Description:
Chain A is an all-alpha fold. Chain A has helices at residues 2-16, 23-32, 35-57, 89-125, 127-142, 145-156, 160-186, 190-197, 202-238, 250-257, 266-293. Chain B has 2 domains: 3-90 and 170-317, Rossmann fold (3-Layer(aba) Sandwich); 101-169, no CATH class.
Amino acid sequence: MENIVEEINNETEEKYFDKPISPLKEIWYxxxxxxxxxxxxxxxxxxxxxxxxxxxxMPYDPCxxxxxxxxxxxxxxxxxxxxxxxxxxLSRILDGTKISLRVGITAVAIxxxxxxxxxxxxxxxxxxxxxxxxRFMDIILAFPSMLLAIALMSTLGKGIDKAIIxxxxxxxxxYARIVRGSILSVKESxxxxxxxxxxxxxxxxxxxxxxxNVLAPIIVRATLGISIAILDTAALGFLxxxxxxxxxxxxxxxxSGRAYFFNANHLVLFPGLAITITVLAFNLLGDGLRDxxxxxxxK
Amino acid sequence: xxxxxxxxxxxxxxxxxxxxxxxxxxxxxxxxxxVALVGESGSGKSVTSxxxxxxxxxxxxxxxxGKILFNGExxxxxxTREMQDIRGNEISMIFQEPMTSLNPxxxxxxxxxxxxxxHRNMKKKEAMVKTIEMLxxxxxxxxxERIKQYPHQLSGGMRQRIMIAIALIxxxxxxxxxxxxxxxxxxxxxxxxxxxxxxxxxxxxxxLLITHDLxxxxxxxxxxxxxxxxxxxxxxxxxxxxxxPLHPYTYGLIESIPKIDSEVDRLFxxxxxxxxxxxxxxxxxxxxxxxxxxxxxxxxxxxINVVDxxxxxxxxxxxxxx
Lengths: 299, 322
């Protein structure tokens, strides 16, 4: 008899409580219903796989070419043709994925962490600190970002690491602004005061109590930021400032292929497509995340 | 004596001028006692409590003078770090809005156990065990499931119980309750008050209750401090105050409580408004609304007069004036 009562009790308790859904699961649920975002995510996963294991599926060495086979149209031996030095374009594009993703992700990671810290302090403390940080950000924003990146590159020198630094510096203000705005919107909330009341210090309040509440717009901006960073790297490469030959980088490939535009347009077409697809994938995912993270945008 | 506030002056520097939100407040709180701080909006109740917590935003706020003695030590001389160790540990606070006082992105369990991890150096698991005990103590059924829930899954009354659990988990000596029942409906109010009184006994906590609800005061407080325009105008025990209010303002407050057995068309009210804090009259700030005013009232700020051991800031009880 007692056992039965206990069983009934257990049953009602289980029914009474909806299992709390963790926020991550909830976001995943609404993201998985967005077909475009899922397409973007699948492309990104593919790109990451290519970046990690591209070396094993590359048909040719991306940096060494056969001069006798230069400027060939796409064929069954070279699916995407060869460039002016006879290097296989497909192999070079696969190899370029590594560089593009690395630049995109690290540039955003650097810009995000610096922007997050600066924006948090500016928003939380306000007053003179806010004034100082945000006016400095305004100065950076006053320059056209590409121009500033080029100027930075010319002082830092050429190369992929310097491209990463230049791109992250010019995008810091965007993150700082978003973070500052978000922090301003929550810092007066009662739960922030409540966090103070139980004896938290300012750092704990900012990073443990405020930031988790405002992560949504920051995540979205960072995802979209990756595509911007990839585009900027390509632009720097195109101008000859980014990744240096013989390494394959999509922008650099575009730049050197430009000279053969009229007789071998596949040299421009395929790297361009690679850039477009990658940027599109990150943008689709970013848009999907925005819809998934902001309940007001959901139907 | 657990808390003694002496001549506390808290100012706010605004664009229009300096506002003395708290202007020389004195009161005392004995161990295990419930002292109610009453007064209408803008009388400085909340600023007094935030001053005690050390949470006055500076700038624009500033504690210009006075002492806040907590267990004999002046809290105003403590460093930021020392105050952080006191807050949530020895002095706790609950707010009037339980709907917005909990962080929406964390589970109940995490929010309650945070204090223990912060102040008692407990491990997560240990803290969770204590948290579950505390949830039981504040009357939340099935605490094992509840700790995994988020604030939006709980009702207002439940959330206020959670707030009380957070405030009391480190067994503080002093609990400041800033209108803890204002946002709740009447039946839940009664439950929350009953719970607070029970926990006061169990944890031997003193309570500074900030409210404008005299019904709540009559029910739970031992002593009452009546504030008006940043000053204490009358102090006394609950019985003294309700049976024989001496200050005309206190009299007005008690008279304006609707009584269930009286048949009146219009409730009693105190005419007029609180004077503009930027433009305080030089005399008694209550003078323009007082129905027993004397000629001296508009000229001179009344001193504190002691009548039968009760302190009243009113010229009516000054022997010299009489």
